[in-house]
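BACKBONE GEOMETRY TOKENS
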Amino acid sequence: MSDRVESKMAAAMVHMCCLYRGMLAVRNTGIRPLIPGVAPLQLRAFSVRKEPTLEENPFYSKYGDKIAQLRRLKPQEFEACIEKRRELKRQPLGQSQQAEFIKLIEEESEKLGKRASGSGGFSKDKTLGSILNVDMVKEKTAEEIGQIWMHYFATKDTICAIIPGEKFETMSDRGKNCPTFLYALPQEEGYEFFVGQWSGNELHFTSLINVQTIGQNAPSQLILYHYPELQKDKGIVLMAAEMDHKFLDVTKAQCLANQVQLFYGTQHQETFHLVELFNHKPADFKHMSVIAKLEQTGISHPRA
């Protein structure tokens, strides 16, 4: 069993524990989503109940076989995972400060952005030429190229986009100054948070729970590749994505991609101000503002 698989399993076990405790929001009036460091005091009693066994956890079925295999073949690693789970349960909610939490995310996501994108089955050095014959489309219009691009990916289990050149220039410039942001992915109950990190023209996503439990070894679960080769002549930038289908489906990946344009490509300064706060004034950043913006703009609840 590889170290990468064991790391994912460890994160999965901690993730199951956290979800069961209510670390992600429940959509009830007056209930605020919980993430470490920002838990309101009135929600500390949220998880007061009999502690479930590992098998009783509602997320056990997703990872049960791998957990059982780890328990059988490497009992020491399994016990280490269980101890990590116990440590999280012993930590009082709301103990750490929000600024410290954001600092941790910044440090770990910076390491994430420096890693090569070849891990987790993702392509290394993915170029536009590996997808599209650039010479053959030079004589075509931007609209025709867009149609070819969309048609190529129509039958593939991924997402793509044609981004206006001016909008991408805005997104790219902002990404250089504010490379990291915290995205909220709507789930059936509440939200799961993802850290997005720009690395050149690539945007890497990994779940917050991965950053917290695995740190710099957290694998990318979604990568958005942006190709500006046609930006000057055709006024468009092509985007394609790769994702880890064990954790994300196309609909959820599309939701995250939509949020990139929402927060980095917006013409409303107050929306991009959330990104600036996260990067430059983390003590003033409020994660609930991200969720409020999603609700305000009507980004739909992703469903498979």
